[in-house]
Design goal:
The complex is a heterodimer.
Chain A lengths: L2 E3 L10 H16 L8 H20 L15 H22 L2 H4 L1 H4 L7 H28 L10 H25 L3 H14 L20 H7 L1 H15 L5 H25 L3 H4 L1
Helix pairs in contact in A: 1-6, 2-3, 3-6, 3-7, 3-8, 3-10, 6-7, 7-11, 10-11
Chain B lengths: L3 E15 L6 H7 L4 E16 L3 E5 L6 H9 L6 E7 L2 E4 L12 H11 L4 H15 L14 H14 L4 E5 L7 H17 L2 E5 L3 H7 L2 E6 L2 E7 H19 L19 E2 L4 E9 L8 E3 L4 E9 L3 E12 L4 E3 L10 E3 L3 E8 L7 E11 L2 E15 L33
Parallel strand pairs in B: 3-7, 3-8, 5-6, 6-7, 12-19
Antiparallel strand pairs in B: 1-2, 1-4, 8-9, 10-19, 11-13, 13-17, 14-15, 14-16, 14-18, 18-19
Helix pairs in contact in B: 3-4, 3-5, 4-5
Classes of the chains: A mainly alpha, B alpha/beta.
């Protein structure tokens, strides 16, 4: 029997079952009571994909880079890569930011670490994204565009997950204190969408800018850009991606983890009073 | 083990009061930081130990800090200063079914709620049958909890919580929910836990429960520890203070000129009127006027009358009717010891009891002055009487004062504890 203050029950690992249960709750609640169930999670991405494909490849005649196996590129497939990675980012933030408010009644009655419901919803979202990712990889396989570089995708996913979880925890905690943060984040996500090479390739960006910093620098500095670029390199271009980009996303993930920890320590421990 | 199960050391808890909540960035930017209306100390420097294996009650008025204390014990809030140390796994039942998700079925919610309470999936799997059985909600277990009745909701919540098999259980006034059958189940279970050596900390307003279930109790008032110790002593101290306060708040009733006639009394006033009872007073041992009488204490009922003729052999009577509608007693002066003569003026008669046997509660008092079948005056339920107690109530409407003895034992009892069936 150990002496402890009531809150110290263990580290993140000891709460894995709770986190997993929150994730399951999110997944089950999302698709219960809908006739098509899981299929719904694909309706929005497919619609987005179709719309962007039509607009950018048919109307604006955007030229996609060639596949890694040497074949001529396909804009829709190339776009799917970007959208898959993007929807992990945007989806996590959108669902996780409200996770603490959603768990509010519970947090006021029972103690559990507030990060658990947030991580639960990030995990739920990532699981949902696996369907999209799977479809994308099946399409690539059908096109014969497969290589050993796919084996690096899990590593990319781990770094991305750390990055997403950290941002989500920080924002979810702050959102309890500042309830309008969700709106601001909504706008910021939209802005980031256009600051990331999802619907346009990096090669298309005009080099010079009137404001001093070039658009290329700005877009490259965006960590989402690097996450998307590496993902495309691994799966579409079939190259391992530049070491610098890997380093860049790792540093970002760790920095966000540090920020999340700071925010959590400073703001999350008395949440039960704010909710 | 001599270590206490829970040790509370110098705990204080401050809440910041805001006139208006400014929890949006917009408001922060436009109007700056919220003005604080000062701090509210829900608890100041409270320390106590809960010995292992005992049941500990927290009592006090509303707003005294009991619930805050429980939340600190459960870890929901952090203390502003001081610390709570728990030796063992804590399970808190501050609200049953708080973590249920309406769309999920009862079974799915068991997994979710169980893991919040710290159970692993395997433990939940093992306890699943027991939980479903204890909740007794039948086939509803596979229906979404949003279709549950509130009773079923609570039962499922309790079933999950008690299955955690905690070493330290923290309970907020939850036993009061559910039907009679379920309440008994809860009590049986709590008894079971006590026997197994679980430490229980509970908040309740039922003094009877504290006396019967708790070994020790702490009395909080305005966030401070007022008394701690044997639960009976603490309850007695608490009740005495509450009683005193009630007495102080209720101004001693002056002798009423005419009895307050209770609306709805079937026969408010009867009689020929040669003698009219104009007031009823309650006096304590020392003869001072009381708005409230204490069960077990000496009491005097003083009936003031006004007579237009001098009469002999007037019989005065009192009737005590409990708020539940039961008439408990009807003492009258017919049986003496001395006849009460009445002069044509104002006066009073006293009825003394050495020990008030009425249980705490509210009573309606009827008064009458009669003579062999003739009614001079009768006021049906014209007066109110409040009786309060020094300790938690026993069941029933009257208290039998007595003492218990047992013959000296010649052999050691072989069975020390048994099932209370």
């Amino acid at each position: 029997m150990t002496t402890m203050t009531v809150r110290e029950r263990g580290n993140m690992w000891s709460y894995r079952s709770l986190i997993w249960n929150f994730a399951q709750r999110d997944l089950k609640a999302r698709f219960k009571g809908t006739a098509l169930g899981w299929l719904w999670s694909l309706v929005v991405p497919i619609a987005t994909l179709v719309i962007y494909s039509v607009v950018f490849s048919t109307i604006m005649r955007m030229e996609p880079p060639p596949f890694g196996n040497g074949n001529k590129g396909n804009f829709t497939v190339w776009l799917l890569a970007g959208l898959t990675a993007w929807s992990m980012f945007a989806g996590s933030l959108n669902t996780a930011i409200g996770a603490l408010l959603g768990a509010g009644p519970l947090l006021k009655k029972i103690y559990f670490p507030p990060y658990t419901p947030v991580l639960g919803s990030v995990i739920a979202l990532l699981i949902q994204s696996m369907i999209e990712l799977g479809i994308y990889l099946v399409v690539l396989t059908a096109l014969g565009n497969v290589s050993w570089t796919w084996l690096l995708v899990p590593f990319w996913l781990v770094i991305f997950a750390v990055f997403l979880s950290s941002i989500s925890i920080a924002l979810a905690v702050l959102n309890v204190h500042f309830r309008d943060l969700a709106h601001i984040i909504g706008v910021a996500i939209q802005l980031l969408f256009y600051l990331s090479p999802i619907i346009y390739p990096m090669s298309l960006i005009a080099g010079k800018s009137k404001m001093g910093i070039s658009a290329t620098t700005l877009i490259s500095a965006n960590p989402i850009t690097q996450f998307i670029e590496i993902f495309r390199d691994l799966t579409y271009g079939l190259t391992p991606g530049s070491p610098l980009a890997w380093l860049y996303i790792t540093v970002w993930a760790l920095a966000m983890a540090w920020v999340a920890r700071r925010v959590y320590r400073a703001r999350a421990l008395d949440l039960s009073e704010e909710l | 083990m001599t270590d206490p199960a829970v040790r509370v050391v110098g705990i204080s808890k401050k809440f910041t009061l805001h006139t208006e909540k400014r929890n949006s960035l917009k408001e922060r930017l436009v109007r700056g930081r919220a003005r604080t209306d000062g701090d509210f100390w829900a608890l100041t420097d409270v320390s106590f130990d809960v010995p292992r294996g005992t049941t500990f009650g927290l009592i006090g008025n509303n707003g005294s800090g009991k619930s805050t204390m429980l939340k600190l014990l459960a870890g929901v809030h952090r203390p502003t200063s001081g610390s709570v140390i728990a030796n063992g796994r804590v399970s808190a039942l501050l609200e049953l079914g708080a973590g249920f998700h309406g769309e999920l079925t009862g079974r799915e919610n068991i997994y979710l709620n169980g893991s919040i309470l710290g159970l692993s999936k395997r433990q939940i799997d093992q306890s699943m049958e027991k939980i479903i059985d204890f909740a007794g909600i039948g086939d509803f277990i596979d229906a979404p909890v949003k279709v549950y009745s509130s009773g079923m909701y609570v039962r499922l919540g309790f079933s999950i919580a008690v299955t955690v098999d905690p070493e330290i259980l923290i309970v907020d006034e939850i036993i009061a929910v559910g039907d009679e059958e379920f309440q008994r189940k809860c009590f049986d279970y709590m008894f079971e836990l006590r026997k197994r050596g679980t430490t229980i900390v509970m908040v309740t307003h039922s003094m009877g429960l504290v006396e019967s279930m708790c070994d020790q109790a702490a009395w909080l008032e305005n966030g401070q520890l007022k008394a701690i110790g044997d639960s009976r002593d603490v309850v007695r101290q608490y009740l005495d203070t509450v009683n005193d306060r009630e007495v102080a708040a209720a101004l001693p009733q002056p002798v009423a000129e005419t009895p307050q006639v209770v609306v709805g009394g079937e026969h408010p006033r009867l009689g020929s009127g040669e003698v009219r009872i104009v007031g009823l007073e309650y006096l304590n041992e020392s003869g001072s006027l009381q708005p409230v009488l204490m069960c077990g204490d000496p009491a005097t009922f003083r009936m003031h009358y006004r007579a237009t003729e001098s009469l002999r052999d007037v019989v005065f009577g009192l009737g005590f009717r409990h708020e539940t509608g039961v008439t408990l007693a009807g003492p009258n002066s017919e049986n003496g010891p001395t006849p009460v003569p009445v002069l044509a003026s104002e006066g009073f008669v006293d009825f003394h009891v050495p020990r008030l046997t009425l249980q705490p509660g509210n009573y309606e008092v009827s008064v009458a002055a009669v003579k062999r079948g003739h009614t001079y005056d009768h006021v049906d339920r014209g007066f109110e009487l409040r009786v309060r107690g020094h300790d938690g109530s026993e069941p029933g409407l009257t208290r039998m004062f007595g003492h218990w003895t047992a013959p000296a034992l010649t052999v050691e009892p072989s069975v020390v504890s048994g099932s209370p069936r």
